Amino acid sequence: MLSFTTALTVAAERGIAVLPYRWGDDSAARVAREQGAVLAVGRRRGREGGKVSLSPDSIRRSAGITRLVLPSPNGATVAARLAGAGATVVGVALRNADAAAAAALRRLGAGDAVALAAQVDAATAVPVLDEGGWFTTESAPSGGPHGTF
């Protein structure tokens, strides 16, 4: 999940909506085409051809991408399963932990639960899985990423 959540937060900072997808699923290319999205390739192919991959650096270097289908062995599969079970899913890396905590608190009601896909890494964009299954960006609170919790 470490690569997935870091890649997800980098994409969110760039305003790229991310559709988490099961790793190794042959339908990913078709879904990307149908959704008008770019399909991320494996890291090795990404390095060879300068394509977008699960590598956060490849996403930073990308241009003109607004939607990304991002397969991963763990993070994407877990996020999709949690969302399918009706959970609120927030992509969290240490780089956006404060902003994600504030977003989770804003979204939760009394007794609600939230599943956090966590990692270790300092960003303020908060990727939240929407009803369509896409991670889109929720901004940090107006007080900045270190708001009152």
Task: Give me a quick take on this structure.
The chain is α/β, with parallel strands linked by helices and 149 residues long. The protein has one domain.
Radius of gyration of CA atoms, rounded to a whole number = 15 Å
**Beta-sheet strand percentage?**
15-25%
Please list the strands of the largest sheet in the order they lie side by side: 1-3-2
* Through-space gap between termini: 26 Å
Q: What sequence of helices (H) and strands (E) makes up the elements?
A: HEHEHHEHEHEEE
The stretches of 5 or more residues where confidence is low (pLDDT under 50) are 116-123, 139-149
* Overall mean pLDDT: 76
Please, how many domains?
A: 1
What is the overall silhouette? globular
| Overall number of strands | 7
Number of helices: 6
Structural class: alpha/beta
Give the helix level as a range of percent.
25-40%
Instruction: Give the biggest sheet.
Output: 3 strands, parallel
